[in-house]
């Protein structure tokens, strides 16, 4: 497979009407993310590495042995877009690798809507369970025993991900399969740079100050994105969009401890 120029293609996917990303409507929002030539080259190199990872994965696993775990978040959204671009370039049906979505009674309606939009936009097969993650995976392995490996959008700055490898088996007690983590080395800003370079649609919560999205009971807009003029107000319109977060170490500042 000639992968030399794959990552240089920035056009939208054939047969998919990719929307422009949703822009936020908060006051004084005149800041578009600036993409320099250096940043663009860096993201191209990042994408090339992911393509090579997918290619290596397909030398180990058959298409029917793979699934993609999707939660509607920014990292998974980037991985979904990269994976679908790779499949298209290799003339592989987008439904060949299904999307696994674990739905919760406490999930944001915005996330559920975004997941449904992604299924339609990318023409992927949706596998959905409404159970805790471990139970859902156990049922998935019973319903789909052919699955051997799962793509995940983990980055090494995520909780408990600082020591995991790009290919790593699940922990003891979990259904046995290989976890595929091609975005481990990507930074918070790498994710947003990719989204802006490729005009990738994303969940609208990110326009309203959310930077790390869990469930409704543990997720708030990031306080580091609050406009100074709105410091005494508690409305989503008073937050800058997620990509304006300067200090990436504060990505999870809006996540509440249980």
Automatic annotation (TrEMBL):
The keyword ATP-binding applies. Residues 66-135, 143-220 form the Phosphoadenosine phosphosulphate reductase domain. Pathway: Cofactor biosynthesis; FAD biosynthesis; FAD from FMN: step 1/1. GO terms for biological process: FAD biosynthetic process. InterPro entries: PAPS_reduct_dom, Rossmann-like_a/b/a_fold. Its EC number is 2.7.7.2. It is an enzyme of class 2 (transferase). Keywords: ATP-binding, FAD, Flavoprotein, FMN, Nucleotide-binding, Nucleotidyltransferase, Transferase. One of its GO terms (molecular function) is ATP binding. It catalyses: FMN + ATP + H(+) = FAD + diphosphate. PANTHER family: FAD SYNTHASE, FAD SYNTHETASE-RELATED FMN ADENYLYLTRANSFERASE. This is FAD synthase. The lineage of its organism: Eukaryota, Metazoa, Ecdysozoa, Arthropoda, Hexapoda.
């Amino acid at each position: 497979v000639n992968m030399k120029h794959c990552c240089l293609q920035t056009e939208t996917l054939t047969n998919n009407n990719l929307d422009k990303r949703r822009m936020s409507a908060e006051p004084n929002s005149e800041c578009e993310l600036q993409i320099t030539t250096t940043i663009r080259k860096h993201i191209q190199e990042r994408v090339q590495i992911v393509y090579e990872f997918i290619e290596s994965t397909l030398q180990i696993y058959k298409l029917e042995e793979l699934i993609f775990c999707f939660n509607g978040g920014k990292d998974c959204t980037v991985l979904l877009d990269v994976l679908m671009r790779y499949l298209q370039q290799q003339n592989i049906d987008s439904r060949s690798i299904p999307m696994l979505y674990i739905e919760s009674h406490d999930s944001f309606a915005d996330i559920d809507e975004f997941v449904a939009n992604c299924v339609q936009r990318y023409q992927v097969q949706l596998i959905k369970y409404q159970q805790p993650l471990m139970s859902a995976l156990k049922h998935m392995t019973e319903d789909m025993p052919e699955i051997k490996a799962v793509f995940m959008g983990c980055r090494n700055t995520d909780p408990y991900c600082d020591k995991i490898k790009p290919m790593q088996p699940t922990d003891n007690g979990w259904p046995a399969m290989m976890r595929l983590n091609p975005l481990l080395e990507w930074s918070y800003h790498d994710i947003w740079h990719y989204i802006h370079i490729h005009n990738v649609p994303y969940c609208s919560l990110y326009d309203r100050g959310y930077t790390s999205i869990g469930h409704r009971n543990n997720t708030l807009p990031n306080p580091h994105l609050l406009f100074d003029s709105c410091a005494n107000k508690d409305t989503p319109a008073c937050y800058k969009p997620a990509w304006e977060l300067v200090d990436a170490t504060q990505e999870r500042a809006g996540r509440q401890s249980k």
